[in-house]
Write a structure and sequence with these properties.
Radius of gyration: 23 Å
Order of helices and strands: EEHEEEHEHEEHEHEHEHEHEEEHHH
Number of strands: 15
CATH topology of the largest domain: Rossmann fold
Number of domains: 2
CATH class of the largest domain: Alpha Beta
Distance between the termini: 37 Å
Largest sheet: 8 strands, mixed
Strand order of the largest sheet: 1-2-3-4-5-6-8-7
Shape: globular
Strand content: 15-25%
């Protein structure tokens, strides 16, 4: 399918066609992009009227990706034509659009109506456009805000894939030490346990804690829309993880902390997962500057039926499900999760975990 204007011709790429994919990959390779068709839902290509490829753009869900224009055409209308084409497609389905770019490119997107949310120089800037935006999310938070005159106002961010006794311990500890605890649940469904299930298991598991208030993370709390990396082919993975975390935390500090009056953020200690460790280290640097105290709690341990004592983790629970060893780690699970995993409702999730080769 193709479309024409007076200067350039647009064509929709068949991402199922290996020849088309190779063609675009070759173009993007010269511009330091590694095109991965599995990471996009849609790709368009821009040509001159002489059929010379001069640019391309893609999206996955409501995130723009691989927007690139050949150097000789960067002063033309090619870039704006690509972005406008993608926006027109997405705004029929989504209320907002995100894009990630190098900080030096933010002005170009701002010229097309995008608004910068946060920057983690020198690698990342995240911008958005749409009918709903970060201000809409702040309105949601204001409606959930609790009146507090004294005592610490704390926050925890959890995914809970699934909810474990480790999560429960951290939440109970923070609740005991706080006047109010806001519990942000990652809303994006990239986990084995979908958001609705995770939310219900947590809700049942902390029903006894009267000062804990659960909040949806939306697109702005540990979300894939705030964790870009696809366009940084030549960067060190450690630097990418660090800057991803910084982008998320700067968003938290700028838009969430002042609305809810948060003074503390609780996390579990992390010695193994490199991404989580980078995230915790970034919080240690950035949160105190914003007047938020970071409190690390040693992760809870539990014994297995084999006699081994180890740190509780959701990944160990998922591995036990995969290996049909769930009975060995029942001490890892609060009642809400244990009952769910024993019910027929969880059969499809357990089947998905067993057939999956990913860590999620």
């Amino acid at each position: 399918m193709s479309f024409e204007n007076a200067d350039f011709r647009e064509e929709v790429l068949d991402i199922e066609n290996p020849f088309d994919v190779k063609f675009v990959s070759k173009f993007l390779k010269k511009l330091d992009f590694d095109y991965t068709p599995e990471d996009v839902d849609y790709t368009m290509v821009l040509y001159t009227l002489n059929d010379e490829i001069i640019g391309t753009g893609s999206y996955q869900n409501h995130v723009l990706k691989y927007v690139a224009v050949a150097p000789d055409y960067r002063s033309s209308a090619a870039f704006s034509q690509i972005v406008t084409h993608l926006m027109d497609k997405l705004l029929t389905r989504y209320k907002n659009i995100f894009v990630y770019t190098l900080p030096r490119n933010t002005k170009v997107f701002e010229g097309l109506g995008f608004t910068e949310i946060a920057t983690a120089p020198p690698l990342f800037s995240v911008l958005e456009f749409g009918y709903e935006n970060i201000k809409t999310y702040q309105q949601y938070l204001r409606k959930q805000k609790q009146d507090v005159s004294t005592g610490p106002v704390s926050a925890i961010v959890v995914n809970c894939n699934p909810f474990t006794n480790g999560h429960k311990y951290l939440i109970e500890k923070a609740a005991q030490e706080s006047r109010i605890l806001y519990l942000f649940v990652v809303e994006e469904d990239r986990s084995s346990f979908p958001f609705e299930v995770r939310w219900e298991l947590i809700k049942k598991g902390i029903a006894h804690l009267q000062n804990v208030f659960m909040l949806k993370g939306g697109d702005y709390v540990v979300s894939g829309t705030i964790f870009p990396s696809y366009f940084l082919k030549n960067e060190n993975p450690g630097m990418i993880a660090e800057k991803q975390a910084e982008l998320d935390i700067r968003t938290f500090i700028k838009y969430i902390v002042p609305v809810l009056g948060i003074t503390r953020r609780y996390v579990g200690t992390e010695n193994y997962d490199a991404t989580t460790l980078a995230y915790n280290n970034a919080m240690k640097t950035l949160l105190p500057r914003a007047g938020v105290k970071l409190i690390e709690i040693n992760r809870k341990k539990a014994a297995t039926t084999t006699g081994e004592t180890s740190v509780i983790s959701a990944s160990k629970v998922r591995q036990a499900i995969k290996d049909d060893r769930l009975s060995e780690i029942e001490e890892f699970l609060p009642e809400s999760t244990r009952n769910y995993l024993k019910s027929n409702e969880s059969a499809w999730i357990k089947a998905k975990i067993k057939s999956s080769n990913t860590r999620h």
